[in-house]
Write a structure and sequence with these properties.
The complex is a heterodimer of chains A (about 220) and B (about 120).
Chain A: H1 3-6, H2 18-53, H3 55-62, H4 67-92, H5 96-127, H6 146-178, H7 188-214
Chain B: H1 12-33, H2 40-60, H3 68-92, H4 95-98, H5 112-122
The chains are: A mainly alpha (about 220), B mainly alpha (about 120).
């Protein structure tokens, strides 16, 4: 075996083979996702505590959110998870052009999500349904509705930041796909960015019913 | 050393079926939210969300076929999240058992609402 055969360009010299390299990358990504789950977990627990303390207020305050916009964004994110998975599937079959267009679709869907979020946020800014001491809206029954909006903005804000980071990562993947860095033998960056993107989708799957539907 | 290992390639139809199931479950959770089931509202919503999350984890994130170490890492996150949630709620939900005064708020509304109400009544 020549050196070029055992060490293709994508293989870092400190790994024995491509499989070990991919396992290392994936393990690292899953450990990162563990820390992500626990970060969002803190916010989910804040939600649980304050909801248990203020059940009526949460009920009245959640009606201020637009459930159809939340449902639309759920459909948009699920579709973007599908296009992300299909971009990897295409690369596994060496259909590199198809990978590029599926990544493009994922970015456009993620941007759609942010546009819907922008309309929701600007409406709430306008009404004064803001977190903590910035809250000035008087149309919600029950004590301390500002707590609901503090939690709403923290959870959806941190999630939105993840969507923006995801958009940046997927654009980076589009550039590398265009440059021909990936093939059916090497597509680890696609795979681990996919894991990140699916986790962002998974967190929204919980945020949507908890905030928009049952409050 | 060989580089001829094969990755698991998920058949296309699985992705399409999982995505369709996620869409249908989204429609169901929205439809059910219009029916008042009392205390079951939360359980139904969280139950459907958990099924959706598991579909994403097992099929989109490949946990069904991948090395079991990734499933162990994911389950560890969920286990510690559960410990965090359960022990915290044991505290915050049972404070009134020992001293009933600690059950409710000392002041029902945050101080900011005092000034908010006074400004709205002067107009």
């Amino acid at each position: 075996m020549s050196n070029a055969e055992t060490h293709p360009t994508y293989l870092q010299h400190h790994f024995a083979d491509a499989e070990q390299q991919m396992d290392a990358a994936k393990t690292g990504m899953w450990v990162f996702l563990l820390t992500e789950i626990l970060t969002f977990g803190g916010l989910f627990i804040a939600y649980a505590i304050y909801r248990a303390w203020n059940p009526e207020m949460f009920h009245f305050a959640h009606k201020a959110l637009n459930a159809s916009m939340g449902a639309l964004n759920t459909i948009v994110l699920i579709t973007s998870s599908l296009t992300m998975a299909l971009s990897i599937w295409s690369m596994q079959h060496d259909k590199k052009k198809q990978t590029f267009w599926y990544l493009m679709a994922t970015v456009l869907l993620a941007a759609t999500f942010m546009v819907v979020k922008y309309f929701e946020y600007s409406h709430k800014f306008h009404l004064g349904q803001l977190p903590g001491k910035y809250y000035t809206y008087t149309g919600i029954e029950g004590a301390n509705p500002h707590i609901f909006f503090s939690i709403y903005f923290m959870m959806t804000g941190l999630h939105g930041l993840h969507v923006l980071i995801g958009i940046g990562l997927i654009i980076w993947l589009m550039v590398r796909t265009k440059k021909g860095h990936f093939s059916s033998k090497y597509y680890t960056p696609l795979e681990i960015t996919g894991l990140f993107w699916h986790l962002v989708d998974m967190i929204w799957i919980f945020l949507f019913p908890l905030l928009y539907l049952i409050g | 050393m060989n580089n001829t290992h094969t990755h698991h390639i998920t058949p296309l139809w699985i992705y399409l079926v999982v995505a369709s199931a996620l869409m249908v479950l989204t429609i169901i959770t929205v439809a059910v939210s219009n029916i008042d089931l009392g205390g079951f509202n939360v359980l139904v919503a969280l139950g459907i969300a958990s099924i959706k999350a598991l579909l994403v984890a097992f099929f989109f994130m490949q946990l069904w076929w991948d090395k079991k170490i990734y499933l162990v890492i994911f389950s560890t996150a969920m286990l510690f999240l559960t410990i965090f949630l359960v022990l915290t709620m044991f505290d915050t939900q049972t404070r009134g058992y020992i001293n009933p005064e600690m059950d409710g708020r000392i002041k029902p509304n945050a101080p900011m609402y005092d000034t908010m109400e006074s400004t709205s009544t002067t107009h």
